[in-house]
Fold each of these.
Amino acid sequence: MKGTKTSSFGTKGRVAHDSSKFYNSKLYKEIKNNNSDIIVNEFPNELLNTIIASSCENMKDIPNNSLHLMITSPPYNVSKEYDNDLSLNEYLNLLKNCFAETYRVLVDGGRACINIANIGRKPYIPLSDYVSKIMIEIGFNMRGEIIWNKSAGAGISTAWGSFQSASNPILRDVHEYILIFSKGNYKRERDKEEKELRKDNITKEEFIEWTKSVWTMNTESAKRIGHPAPFPEELPNRLIKLFSFTNDIVIDPFMGSGTTAIAAINIISKIR
């Protein structure tokens, strides 16, 4: 069977696809994939299914290279009751410290998934861009980004700016980002013994649908959850099943309303 190759005009399908022409181009010449320590350390049993009341900037209780997946949604730092009123630089420094610790505790090939929204209008603050830059500076390899389309359940926003006028029209955000990164290898390697312990837990239909870069999901009620900015359980549910195996250990360094933990427990994952 003859495989497909990268061409100037694209290809209708990918069969044993040879993309070497693309990755050997000048576009990729100066981009290097970051490598990491492949040693895996045992995660302490006493910390499984536990909330550690400590700062995510110093996860001293967690060994290096011992966790498999991070899913989180950082607080938006907009003076809501659960935030400190930090400057932009202070806020980004907090995230950098937290995600540097995340890098330390993830195994080689471990994934980091960050749900974040851009904020403000005058000016618009592209937090997703800032976070992507921070993660790459730390040493993560970026795998891609998912657009969370919230339009079906986002309600009716009236923040139009100058309504029906070119004077000052304002875009109404009905989406957020889910940024996906890997530590070291893009592929999680498993030996024969690990394949018995760590198995895939995703259906064919789920895999085909969830590998699309746009996810349409309703928002979660802040009033019902009792948290200013909760994400729906479906979001971490998809990420856990897509990016981890059974018996992997999942961490949410900010935790919020605990939705990541609930999703992990509900699909029989272990969580710190």
Amino acid sequence: MTKEKKSFMEKLIGSRRVEDDIDHSSRHSIHPTPVVEDEFEDISIPESRMETSQNNFSDNWSSAQSMESDESGDGQLTIDVYQTDEDVVIKSTIAGVNPEDLDVSINNDMITIRGERKFEEEVSEENFYYQECYWGSFSRSVVLPVDVIAEKIEASLKNGILTIRLPKADTNKTKKIKVRGF
């Protein structure tokens, strides 16, 4: 068995390929290979550069997290977006929300879904065994992949699934424009 040379990232973060952890002589057992310190001796990264990389990672991570939730602290919906021949379709699980508590709006090439899931029981924090459901306001904005006809968009909520159908605009049509002279 030939040992592949580790990539820079593998050496830097100390990870190993899955194949490196598998004993190929026996298909029935997996034996992790121990990490030996001198495997990493040929890496020399100045301390200042390591600190800069860590700071950049922290800055990027916190800005990515702030982009995920709205400034008001809204939760974010999970969605599926796909296309048919005629429509772009957006589906999202929104159990426990009444249709009148949903706001779906479109502006240029972006659709926004907002709403609120209300927890209607009074349960004190210490009485919860698990608390995994999201309660409160949520929102999600999606940049549409194609032009749609806003006037013909339909949204329905059935069995806790929100389905939004956005008819595609026919962008292949050539429109003749008459030029007027003055």
Amino acid sequence: MTSVIVVDSEFKECINEYGQIIDSANEKKILGEELNKFFDEKTNEIQDKEGLKKLIYTSSSAPVLSKLSDKEFESTFNLLIYILSELEGSLLSLFNEKSTLVESLVQCIPTEEPSLRDRKCIKATTILSVLNTIFNFLPETSKERVFILSTILKVVEQSYTSFELIQTSVGTQLVRWLENAGASVESIKQLFWKFISLDDQKRRETLDLIKSFTAKYSLTLEELQQLIKFALLSSTVDISFLVNNNVAKALQSFSNDEYAQLFQKYIKGELATSVPSDLKESQEFIYQKSRIVALAQFFVANEGKGIFKYSDIPSSLVSSSADFELILINSIKSGVIEGRLNQVEEVFALSRVNRFILAGDDESINKNWASVRQSLTEWKGALENIEEIVNATRENIVNSNSD
């Protein structure tokens, strides 16, 4: 997030320029004349700083600024920031939580999404660009940065801005910025989960951000529920990687909660046959995801088998051969399993399946470690016999050449 405010003119010239811009927007030549009255004609010194400041604030309301075209809005607002920072003697005082300047900026968000052909209407991306400029001019440790970050999220939420615009630029740095600015733990958590709620596509990258965040910060019941809803409604099937120590503790602390119970069933490979009321519209989607996880867990439990007939699959998971083939295809697409399907012989050769290792689930962890030990033992045995196999092969080649 980098940007620059460049002002080369003398201060009075900046005032005159701003007055002309606003007068042009209002189609009246009033402000420019009024502003000039605050300067000494001979020395150009300001005679009434407070009066000048008050006039600029009142003439820079949202209804007035909204008359500017999108093309001229950002440069004009940057000029306004420069003028007011000079009059206030500080940049920080302009951008606290009581800032009327920021309030006016946010009020310029269009109430309807502008058409692609509309070049005059101020775009939300332009307002975000102004906020970006403000953010970068504030010291890293200033609490005003917390307010500006909150405002950026507010603009994205209220406008038609795509989450992708802030996904990387803000998402990967948000927590660090808030921590450096001295935000309270409560504020950090509140703004992080607000950011997460803006991703209506429930992207995998956002799930990774949740994983990193919850590794450091504990969860309340409300935060746990938000995590669970987001994960279950995402296209990512294997969401077991989200279960770190803090998430495991929260699941244990709120074990009676219906979301926690659903999540526990899902990640353990049990079919999600019912969901909380506010997830009813997505029940079928969640159920189909849980079938894939349940099938993967079935393969894990029978991993030594390798080859599976269609008839080996429990009827609780599949209703027909065609149904099994469909769930297999979806499982392979989701990356949960790998293998080869033979439709003629109606068999499936499993080559790899995800292991769902969950923090706090000692039984599951012990089983997975046992499987790893067995695989290492088999591998060690194969290595011990390799010299014998090589010698036998060499001897066969020699004998064959002798014949």
Amino acid sequence: MIALVGAATCGRSDAGGGVPPSIRYDQHVFAGGVAPPAGSLTNPLHGDRSSAAAGEKIFSAMNCDGCHGGGAVGWVGPSLVDGRWRYGGADGAVFQSVYYGRPRGMPAYGGILSPAAIWKIVTYLQAQPIPPDVPTEGWPARRAP
């Protein structure tokens, strides 16, 4: 019975544009170089300050800062606030990275977090100011031993 319900809902998406299609667990982490399903998602919370504040709390509660550092400035995982996005920085692309996961360490949180919670994280990340680049031209050259 559960398998029939899962099969019946697989591939459906929310008409509002804020919810991706349902997927099976084994489809959550894509192999290297394979993009998530095409289609644009619209962030229903874009620019909402209270959602951004809630997203910051979810980011910390889910230990995202364990990989991405406090304030999402980067640590083991890449910075999420420097304006450089490996898989695209639009709201929908960031949502898909969190929902589906990415190769080389980013787990999938779709099914663990609700789409609304993921949108709050996206809203938090997008609300962060992009810091200025640090020039590296003046740094002393490192020489091989």
